[in-house]
């Protein structure tokens, strides 16, 4: 009779351990799947960070970008753009007026640092984000056409921001011009 209760206790303990292991495996597998998914998303950004062109500082990246664009090397200029934004700028580079707009932007020495902030939607592929701005003056109203749409730019002083991202390799790239 003494063996009956001991076997029952061992069965309860074994059952409890099995449930604990099942719960741990379930949650562990879920965490592993999330980790695996994040690594899968990061992989192209890691590869790009290691191979793309960039600058040691945000303004260095901008200077090199402009230099490549001035030399007519659009593909090289695109290598200074953060991976997730690159296709948008590739489309812009098909339009000479857009290229001219980028070349009309001032030299980096005219930029002022506005803010540093945390990465948002690109958080898995970004270490740091910084925003610079510059002011420019439009002396007289002018009409521009971009992608078939006409717009009027009125005379005045305007402020424009440029956002840079420090990629996973610790190099700065342009996120938004």
Major β-sheet profile: 4 strands, antiparallel
What radius of gyration results from the CA coordinates? 27 Å
Mean of residue pLDDT? 83
The proportion of residues forming helix, as a percent range, comes to 40-55%
Explain this structure to me?
With 177 residues, the chain is an alpha+beta fold. The chain is built from five helices and six strands. Helix content is 47%, strand content 24%. Strand 5 (156-166) and strand 6 form a beta hairpin. The protein is elongated, with a radius of gyration of 27 Å. It starts with a helix and ends with a strand. The model has no long low-confidence stretch (mean pLDDT 83).
Provide a compact summary of the structure.
The protein has 177 residues and is an alpha+beta fold.
What characteristics describe this protein?
177 residues, alpha+beta, four-stranded antiparallel sheet, two-stranded antiparallel ribbon, 5 helices, elongated
Please describe the topology of this protein.
Layout: H1 3-51, H2 58-70, H3 74-78, H4 86-92, H5 96-104, E1 112-117, E2 128-138, E3 142-146, E4 149-153, E5 156-166, E6 172-176
Antiparallel strand pairs: 1-2, 2-5, 3-4, 5-6
